[in-house]
User: What shape does this take?
Amino acid sequence: MDIRYLKGIGEKRAQMLAKLNIHTAEDLLSFYPRDYVDYSAPYPVAQAPHEVKCVVRATVYEVGAPTRVRSGKKLTRVAAGDDTGSLALSYFNNPYISSKLNSGETYLFFGKVGGNFLHREMVNPVVLTQKQAQQTPLVAVYPQTEGVNSAFLSKCVQNALEHLEMDEPLPHSLLTKYRLCEKQEAIVKIHFPKQRADIQAARRRLIYEELLTLQLGLLMMRSRGKTLTSARMKPVALTPLWDSLPFAPTRAQQRAAAEIMEDLQKPQPMNRLLQGDVGSGKTLVAAAAIYCAVQNGYQAALMAPTEILAVQHAGSLERMLAPFGICVVLLTGSMKQSAKKLALKAIAEHRAGLVVGTHAVLSEKVQFANLGLVITDEQHRFGVRQRTLLAGKAKHPHTLVMSATPIPRTLGLLMFGDLDISILDELPPGRIPIKTYAVTGKKRADLFGFLSRQLDAGRQAYIVCPLIEESESELLAAQTYCKEIARPLLPGRRVGLMHGRLKAAEKAAVMEQFQKGELDVLVSTTVIEVGVDVPNANCIVIENAERYGLSALHQLRGRVGRGGGEAYCILVSDHVSESVKKRLSFLCHTTDGFEIAKFDLETRGPGDFFGSRQHGLPSLRIADLMADSRILYAAQQDALAICADDPTLSKTVHKGLAHLVEQLFSGETVLN
Ligand code: ADP
Ligand code: MG
Assistant: This one.
């Protein structure tokens, strides 16, 4: 049911809800609270913690008449308290408050208590009568967007619940097996719990349901690859490739290449994840796999997340593979039509051994003569969708996914089912650790002085700013930054600007200038992302560093230090909170990507780290892959059993599950 038909939701509110991805009554009911306010155990006035949101019980003594204050707002002062102390309440622009509060009655107030122990105060606290608090002791707090507050969402959910009977999607056998509550009950309890135990029961049920759905979807996508590959290969000696390099492959690179080689000889298609920290040399391992495929008479395709990376990969792989007569063809969206035609022809006629392109282009228009190997360079995210699309262009080619996100091995196995994992746990020798410093904006003049000296020495620098949106005014927008800070502070230098609003061709042009050394400094938003390789760049400055996870900062830092000599990463942040300081300082002293990811997990929580943007799995509403890994394991076992019995989920008892899978993976091609 469309959300607009619910009571109290008009066109305007529907638009606001759309921002939260809520379009139907069903969406609304599965928009779960992020927390609850507990009115069942309020603080006496004197015991309320200072400047922390909490619930305080107090009796109202007197409600003042509204007065107009200097800012033009109307202020209503309320004197309240209990036998432990007094509490001054201020309500701004709230004309209804005086009719809501009666002198002599006791209420529950939710908000922060400020002031000092002589004068405690609360500003605009939420108020509940004692009776209301008894009826709804736990009040849901929802993730918010502008114009939609939790009280409003609660009301909408209440309305939706009156209109919608939820069908039970889980087979009854699973409900009994884990003693899970029914869907309808779980939905009521998650939004309107009467006690803590309700929340737990509801969460357990909903988390299980979501993880089972995830596992089923992944299994179904994969079961299509269970058949035999048409590209079974013979072993190939890699010595000629290794010997042609200006350096020796690391042991980790050799091991990963050998693992891949094993896979390529099997009758089933390879499904392998290659994990390695930034700079660990994943490209060379990819080259070895491509080398093997082409020697066996197959074509290989490599998909990159951006055009810039595609161009770069094509270049470096060509250098490695051309000596063996392997023709590398580039295919991107911004190429001229005529060049694209030539490339497509070379691919169709099997003159191209390797095709490098962006996800978008490679998954659409290309006809391969004999595709045997698909490699995806996801940098730090997985795209389930594109991978399956391209894999559909051949009869079950081998697939290799490269990623720089360190996922603990056990978790990776649970997340990606039968995906095999190779890890590059060793950096090429001779890498000098990148000197990393955290500074505040006050030091910016010094910082630019330092940059100047590096530029004098002929090096180049990146400066990363978070956004180009002016509306987020506290952030230094890249454009403004360029104009008002970077250019004035670096007089006479060539400062380029790169941001997400540029067209692909414009981005490529800026990047090329930087690569050729025609720019000294590249100011960019994180769209340049990870993966670009400009060896002469040895400094990276990251503004508003507190905005990123440590893993992301580590990735960005990996942009420098590739060309020998000292390299520097300077994290700029004006946030003085202890936790930010601690995190940035950790990064200054650690170079190991796995350690950094672990710290990130511990300090920011898995929600951030495993946000769907990073791993490319559908975004989960309630489950947490790290925290709920035990349920994930159970769900995986159950999913395997269900798929073994009914691989397409077409039995009546699995109809609900099939619907859930379709919903969770909407936009992905799962069920076909
Ligand atoms: P990433 O794993 O981040 O994709 P790359 O494949 O881009 O890393 O490699 C980073 C740099 O290290 C490249 O310049 C590459 O030529 C170099 N490199 C790769 N393997 C080795 C090695 N065994 N010895 C020395 N340098 C290497
Ligand atoms: Mg790379």
